[in-house]
Amino acid sequence: MDIKKVLYWLCTGILTAIMLFSIYNYFFHYDAVAGFFESYHYPTYLVYPLAIAKILGLVAIWANFSAFLKEWAYAGFFFNTSLALVAHLHAQDGGYHFALVALLCVIFSYFTGKQVRP
């Protein structure tokens, strides 16, 4: 198997796992997530729409039925993970590791996915 294909599937799988963990927390630990949003000065009314957007983004990436939607899903994940990384770094809470890994996975998954036709 080609290294680019392995990198694509590995990064897409890790990104999916991180997003599913995030979605789970958004829905089932709302109070904790809302507290984090408040401490980062983000509005708490974004918690549920972000969870739904992450679900739709994962569906767009994995279903692969529209290149247009897949591009937008990657763009959304890029902005989400980069803003999460900046928020964690600014708050100096040490919780930036998942955001950094997710951001790197978004970038590698996107660019290797362009070279490898999954």
Briefly say what this structure is.
By secondary structure, the protein is an all-alpha fold.
What can you tell me about this protein's structure?
This protein is mainly alpha-helical and 118 residues long. The protein has one domain. It contains five helices and no strands. The chain has helices at residues 3-28, 30-39, 47-63, 67-91, 97-115. Helix 1 packs antiparallel against helix 3 and helix 3 crosses helix 4 (67-91). The radius of gyration is 15 Å and the shape is globular. The chain starts with a helix and ends with a helix. The mean pLDDT is 92.
Question: Which keywords apply here?
Answer:
118 residues, mainly alpha, globular, 5 helices
- Helix tally? 5
Helix-strand sequence: HHHHH
Distance between the termini: 13 Å
Using only C-alpha atoms, the radius of gyration works out to: 15 Å
Instruction: Assess the beta-strand content as a share of residues.
Output: under 5%
